[in-house]
Amino acid sequence: MSYPIADRMRTMQPSPIREILKMAADPKVISFAAGNPAPEAFPTEAIAQITADILRENPVAALQYSVTEGYQPLRTTLKEVIKANYGIESPGHELVILSGAQQGMDFTCKVLCNEGDVIITEEPTFVGALNTFRSYQLNIIGVPLEEDGISLEKLEAALAANKGKVRFIYLIPTFQNPSGLTMSLAKRQGCYELAKKYGVMILEDNPYGELRFTGDELPPIKTFDRDNLVLYVGTFSKILAPGIRVGYVYGPPEVIAKMVVAKQCNDTHTGNISQLLCHRFLTQYDFPAHLEYLRGVYRKKCGIMLGELDRLVQNKITYTRPQGGLFIWCELPAGVDMPGFVATLLEHNLAVVPGSAFMVDGYASVQTFRMNYSTPTDEQLYQGVAILADVINRVLQ
Amino acid sequence: MSYPIADRMRTMQPSPIREILKMAADPKVISFAAGNPAPEAFPTEAIAQITADILRENPVAALQYSVTEGYQPLRTTLKEVIKANYGIESPGHELVILSGAQQGMDFTCKVLCNEGDVIITEEPTFVGALNTFRSYQLNIIGVPLEEDGISLEKLEAALAANKGKVRFIYLIPTFQNPSGLTMSLAKRQGCYELAKKYGVMILEDNPYGELRFTGDELPPIKTFDRDNLVLYVGTFSKILAPGIRVGYVYGPPEVIAKMVVAKQCNDTHTGNISQLLCHRFLTQYDFPAHLEYLRGVYRKKCGIMLGELDRLVQNKITYTRPQGGLFIWCELPAGVDMPGFVATLLEHNLAVVPGSAFMVDGYASVQTFRMNYSTPTDEQLYQGVAILADVINRVLQ
Known about the structure:
Two copies of one chain form a homodimer.
Chain A: H1 7-10, H2 16-24, E1 30-31, H3 44-57, H4 59-63, H5 72-86, E2 94-98, H6 102-112, E3 118-123, H7 127-135, E4 139-146, E5 149-150, H8 152-161, E6 166-171, H9 185-198, E7 201-205, E8 230-235, E9 247-251, H10 253-266, H11 272-284, H12 287-313, E10 318-319, E11 327-331, H13 338-347, E12 350-351, E13 353-354, E14 368-372, H14 378-395
Parallel strand pairs in A: 1-12, 3-4, 3-6, 6-7, 7-8
Antiparallel strand pairs in A: 2-9, 4-5, 8-9, 10-11, 11-14, 13-14
C-alpha cells in the first residue's frame, strides 16, 4: 500500500551527520565528525558500583513504573547543583527529568508552537535541534553568529519583523555546537533584554557548560530570568555518559506542567536505573573531581588539535579557539568548493561535517566545516590534522 | 508573562489515573487503580547479574551514544522471538527499539497523521494511547467493544463514513486494557480484512500477550499481514520491568524509516544499559521459564479477585473473566451513579479507575470501572473486594 506520511515528516531526513558517521565506521577512516564524549571520560567503575548498589538496595524503585516528572531526589539535587554551579535559581520554577536534552527541544515545540510559528536560532546551530524544529513545521529564522555570540542587531531585526509570531529563541551560549564559540556576558544580557522587550521565551541549551578548560565562567542566561521567560536545558550526556539518556529542563511551572503531559504521552517517564545512577553519582561521588578530570581530558585533546592546526594550516584556513566543549569550527578561503573539499578529505580517510548541516537551509553554500576533538585518540588527532593539511596544501596550490 | 501554549496542548490534562494514584498513595488506601506488574514479577537477581556483566565486559557500548534504530543484536533477537512466539514474520519489515511502547503510539501519529485526521479505536481503550492521540489533534472515533472484541459492523460503518480520511485503527486484541477482553480469531481476521478493504493501517498494541494464564493462544493480527498494513508494538514492561523503558515497533520499512527520524528528533536513542539487558535476558536466561513463572503469579492473583467477586457480588454487578493480562472490567447496574460510587469506594479506602477515563469522551456517562489485580498483595485483593462488596450492598439496598 502507499502510506499516508504526515506533512511534517514527508521531507524529513535522518541527520546528515549520521550518514557521514556510517562512512566513518570504516576503521581506516579517522572521524572528526562525531560529537561523542571521549571513551576514557566515562567513570565506568563508579557507574558499575552504583548500579550494583541500586539493584541490590532498591530494585523495585529501579524496575517499577515511576512518575513522569522524574525521580524526586534527583530533581531536588539538580536544582541544588545548578544553583551551586551557575547561580541558577528562579523562585517557583520546576525541573523535570528528560530522556536526554533532545526531548527538551521536542517538548518545547510540542507545548509552545503551532505549525507555522516562528522561532529564532543562532546560525549555524545544532543540527539535532534544527531537525526537531523542522519536524514541527516551524518557520525557523537563523541569526548569524559573531565571535562573541549571536548578532544582537540582527536578532532584534528578526524579532521586530515577526512581532507577535516568535515563540522562542534557541541559544547555546556556551561552547556552542558547531562553532565552539561562547557568547559574551554583554550579549547574554542583550539577548535576555530583547526577549523581554518582545515578550518571547528563550530556550537555553547548555550541554557543554561544565566542560570549560580555559577562561572565565560566564553566567547562563537563566540567571537573569526575573521575568520567567527562560527554559533551561541540561544533560548528563557530556559529564557522565550519553548512553544512559538523562537530561532535564528547568523553567516556569505553567510551561513545565504541559511538558510533563507531553512526556507522559511520549515515553511515560525516563528510565529509573539511569535516574537513580545520576542521583547517586551527584550525591555520593566526588562530582567536582570528576569534572576536573574531564576538563583535563578535553583541554589536552583540544590543545593537540589546535596546536597541530597552528603548526600546519595557520595561514591557510581560519578556525575557532574554544574555551571548552567538543568542537572547532573551520572556514575555507573564498573560492574553495567546501563540499568537494570535505569529500576529498573522506577519500583520504578523514571525516568532518560540512557546515551546511548546521544551517537553517541545509543546502546553503558555505565555506565552513566542523571538527570534533573529543572522540579521536591523541594519535588520530595528529594523523587527522596532517591529512587535513595535506589536502589543504593541494587545494590551495 | 502569559505563555503561548500550543493549540494541541491547551486542553490536555495529565492522565486521570495519575490523579487517582496520587490519592491512592495514602498507605491506608488499597489500590486496584494501577496497571503495574507485581513487584515479585521482577527477576531482580538476574537483572543485577546481567547489568554487572554488561558494565564489566562492555562499558563503552553501554555508556556511549548509539544508533537510533536500537542495539542491533536486540533487534535481531526480537524478530526471532516474535516469530517463534507468535508466528509474526513479514518479509522486509523492520524492527526499531523504542523507549517503551508508548513511543509507538506517539511516533505512529507523528509519522502518519496530520491534524484533524481520523483514527479509530476500540472503546473503551487505553487512556495513555487516547491522550497521545489527543495531543496530535486527531479526530478519534471509538467503536464499541463486544465480548469477543470490537464490533465489526460498527467498525465498517466508521470506515465507510470516513472513507479516505482514516489513518489507522488502534487495537489491543489480547487481554485488552481496560476490559481484559480478548478478540476472537474471526474478529481478528475481520479487522484485517476491513483494514485491507478500506486501505487503512492497523496499529496493533500487544503489551500483555505473553501473560496468558488460561485458554488457547490466538495469533496477533500482524500474522495476517500479507499487505504490509500492520504496525505491531511490543514491550518489555510487563515481561521484564517497566522501569527500564524498552519497547519496540515492527512494520513496513517505509513507515519504520520515518519513525526512526521521529525518534532521532525526540530522544536520539533508547538507553543502552536497558537494551543490552533485554538482549542478554532473552538470549542467556531461560525466558520461557520466566514467562511461565509470571503466568503463575497472575493466574493466582486473577483467581483470587475473580473468586472473591463470584463469592461476594456475583449477581450485583457484571465483570469480565480475563484469560491473561492485568485487568478486570466491571459494570454497575443501570441507575447507579458511577462517579459517586467510585468516590464512595475511595472514602472506604479502595481506589479503582472510573470507566469514563477510557472513553473517547472522557466525560461520557458510563456504568463501568476498571480493577487491577497485579499490583495489590493477595491480602489486599481479599480486603479490597470485601470493601467493594460492602459499598455495593449499601448502594443497592
